[in-house]
Amino acid sequence: MKLKEIIELSKSIIGLDSVSDYDNPGEATLKLIDCARMIYSELCLEYVPIKFKEEAFLSKGVLKYSELTYPVREILWIKMMDSKVPFKMGVHQASIKYKVDSPCEVYYSVHPAEPGIDDELILPPWYTAHLIATGVVSEYYYRVGMVDEALFYRTRYDHSLQNLTKSIRSYTLPRRRFI
């Protein structure tokens, strides 16, 4: 799904004109784009972290974040010679206790990039356009001062997210004994 689809769906929920000129957007469209970017960022940072695995090179046991393709949020593991190695995260680099020059494999989560209007959003398929549009509408109403409508859509959005993210565990009740 693209950011443009989210904006168009949000406009239809609000009741705004759905035909937009994205080269010269109006005030409402600009607010919706900003709201959609915020909701996408919130989803990626709190619910669905974006993770990547890539080959890198340790120079004297140090891996600089700037050498990786995407902005690092957290390094999850570093693998050298098919085994995970302990590491420490610093402000600008990660370091391992072995001071070696070696290729490695890094698995890390990233900060999401701000999507353009025609960019594809990186989310699992169960995060539908309608779910995201509901969050966008709630944020839009909040920003224009319609607090009651914002709370209504925010509640719907939060409940939908809760249903998607909660883990459902099966539990067998013990057999009751009657005395």
Show unreliable segments: none
Distance between the termini: 59 Å
- Give the percentage of residues in beta strands: 15-25%
Give the beta-strand count. Answer: 7
Going by helix content, strand content and strand pairing, the class is alpha+beta
Round the mean pLDDT to the nearest integer and report it: 86
Range of helix content: 25-40%
Series of secondary-structure elements, N-terminal to C-terminal:
HHEEEEEEEHH
| Main sheet record | 4 strands, antiparallel
Gross morphology is elongated
Please give the order of strands in the largest beta sheet.
Answer: 1-7-3-4
- Supply the number of structural domains: 2
Give the count of helical stretches: 4
Polypeptide structure, described:
This protein has 179 residues and is an alpha+beta fold. The protein folds into two domains: 3-48 and 123-165; 50-110, no CATH class. The protein is built from four helices and seven strands; from the N terminus they run ααβββββββαα. The chain has a four-stranded antiparallel sheet, with no helix packed on it. A three-stranded antiparallel sheet has the order 2-6-5, with no helix packed on it. It is elongated, with a radius of gyration of 22 Å. The N and C termini lie far apart (59 Å). The mean pLDDT is 86.
